[in-house]
C-alpha cells in the first residue's frame, strides 16, 4: 500500500536536548509525519470516518513536542510513533522526522535530526 497522509513542517517550541543550553533556552523543532494507510474507502465515500483526521494527529504530536522535556530526539520520535500507531488502527506504518534547525553546536548546516519508521503491530 502506497497511500499516505502527511503533515510536513509542523513547528513546535520545546526544551528537549542533552546540552544544558537546550534545556534552558529551548528551540524550535520541525516535525514531519507520514502515515501509510489505505485511503480507497475514504476516497470513494468522502467520509472522514474512513480515514485518519490529520487535525487529531497534529494535536497528538503537539502534546508530545511541547510536553515534558527529554534528552533525545529518538525518544520523542518513538513516543510519537507509538501514540499514532496505538490510536489509529487504520495506520499501517508511521514515519517521523524531527529536525533541530539551530542546535547550540558549532558549524554551518541546514539542520540536524532523526527519522524513524515504525510498522503498526496492532
Short description:
The protein is α+β, with helices and mostly antiparallel strands. The protein has helices spanning 20-25, 40-45, 54-65, 73-87, and strands at residues 4-14, 27-36, 93-100, 112-119. It has one domain: GTP Cyclohydrolase I, domain 2 (2-Layer Sandwich), CATH 3.30.1130.10.
Any descriptors?
122 residues, alpha+beta, 4 helices, elongated, folate biosynthesis
Would you mind describing this structure in some detail?
With 122 residues, the chain is α+β, with helices and mostly antiparallel strands. It is elongated, with a radius of gyration of 16 Å. It is built from four helices and four strands, in the order βαβαααββ. It has a single domain, classed as GTP Cyclohydrolase I, domain 2 (2-Layer Sandwich). The chain has a four-stranded antiparallel sheet with strand order 1-2-3-4. The longest helix is centred in the middle third of the chain and has 15 residues. 19% of the residues are buried.
Q: Radius of gyration over alpha carbons?
A: 16 Å
CATH superfamily: GTP cyclohydrolase I, C-terminal domain/NADPH-dependent 7-cyano-7-deazaguanine reductase, N-terminal domain
* Overall CATH class: Alpha Beta
Count of separate structural domains: 1
| Biggest β-sheet strands, sense, barrel | 4 strands, antiparallel
User: Helix-strand pattern, N to C?
Assistant: EHEHHHEE
- N-to-C CA distance: 17 Å
Shape: elongated
Strand portion, in percent? 25-35%
Spans of 5+ residues with little confidence (pLDDT < 50)?
none
Protein name: 7,8-dihydroneopterin aldolase
Function: Catalyzes the conversion of 7,8-dihydroneopterin to 6-hydroxymethyl-7,8-dihydropterin. Can also catalyze the epimerization of carbon 2' of dihydroneopterin to dihydromonapterin.
EC number: 4.1.2.25
Pfam family, one: FolB
